[in-house]
Amino acid sequence: MRLFDTLAQPHCAKTCEWPVRTTQRPDQTEGNDIGVPSDTDEAGFTLLELLVVIAILGLLIGLVAPAALRQLGGARNSVAHQSIQRLGEVLDLYRLDTGSYPSTEDGLHALIERPQDAENWNGPYLKDNADPKDPWHHPYIYSNPSERPGHDYDLCSKGAHEATSDRAAMICNP
Question: Which spans are transmembrane here (predicted)?
Answer without folding.
Answer: 47-69
